[in-house]
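Changelog entry: the DUF1501 domain-containing protein record was regenerated in this release. Current contents:
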Amino acid sequence: MCVSRRDFLRLGGAAAAFAATNTLFQTASLAAANGSYRAMVGVFLFGGADNWNMIVPTDTRYAAYAANRGSTLALPQASLTPLAGQPFGLHPSFAPLATAWNEGALSAVLNVGSLHQPLTKAQYQASSTARPLNLMSHSDQQAQWQGLRTRETNSDGYMGRMNDREAILAVPNLMSIAGANLALIGRSSSPLILPSAGTISRNGYNAASTDAAVIARQSALAAFGDGSGMGTATDLSAKAMGSAYNQAATANTIIGATTSSVDQYFRNPTTGAALTSDVSRQLLRVARMIEARGTLGHGRQTFFVSQGGYDNHSDQVSGNNTTGTQANLYADLAMALAGFYAAMKSLGMQENVTAFTMSDFGRTFKVNASRGTDHAWGNNHLVLGGAVKDRTLFGAYPDVTLGGTQDIDSAALGRWIPTTAMDEYIGAIASWYGVAASDMPYVFPNWATWTSGGRGPIGLFG
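Regenerated structure tokens:
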């Protein structure tokens, strides 16, 4: 009988699942209820989010913001959600995060992006070798944000490399609820990938089937599952496939449970209805996995989630600029993050979990002819968690003069050179998470550049 690759990947059995579950409970004591536990949750905004409307200055800089974004894009100052103690406000769609800001659990990093080295406009114009490769390309910039190499091919990602330095567990503590992404690829480790809805299934498997062909196939796979008598390669392969099934079976008991204590927090704050956006479903699953950290034996957890739809070359805004495609995306993101933060508070884990946004790149400051924005460079990002510095912003808001000292665009569209490197941004979170100083150059290939000449991880925590 020929065993196909698809059948091979369906391998597993009840005995193996029991063995894995038993191992999990043996290791559960390794995960503290809180204490040294840490989790980092990366939220990738695919498409290049125009986060120049995510956070807006409310002091004298607002005039330049309004003039250079223009009447089509600029948010009315009165519509902004104020950030008490700072001369900035958030897009009105982010109002659900006001509580987190007021409680000292929300921060923002201004004008951050992919950088090979500190860069001025003169240096940018003088030498292409000082720049990241293929700026403003979706695929290349997504790879650079996830792999953290700006002048060479990225074949693995920083989350995967972090996981390479952690202990091997029955269920990996690196998880994605947003599919397979470069950030998750390690050199010696693998992530657990969970669906945002439903459970992990073994396609074509039915233990109760009476069909002769199905029974024969499942008998063959069961025999293969005991690979000890078939040589080393088969034995190792069988164990690997059995381990994958065991991981799925264990995860299914968590994500497939009818209810969980964290579910109640993922609701629309106005209507009380359950949140249904994909990013909210992803973050709910993250919350459930954090809730189950003790059962899983996890003292550290890393998660990758995402939200798509930000490549808004047209109809980014409508009406009074506070509505439209971007406002709807932001509203889904804000409610999902607010629900996640409330869930962490309910678990007493708000100090131990940090969520943060990433994206391909920022957008042009100047609107295009279709009420949208085009690909640019520097961008703003949010960091959510009780461990961040109380009501503090990081980085530097740029001089938004079109064609000015920070605009690389020959047509003066407002493509800002980042002043904070993604390494300085994500490196701060990785250090808080517990990556050893000796491992930082492994996780961050360009670490030496960003820890010399007075540079270093931004002071997000403390």
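The chain has two domains: 1-30+212-255, 38-198+260-451.
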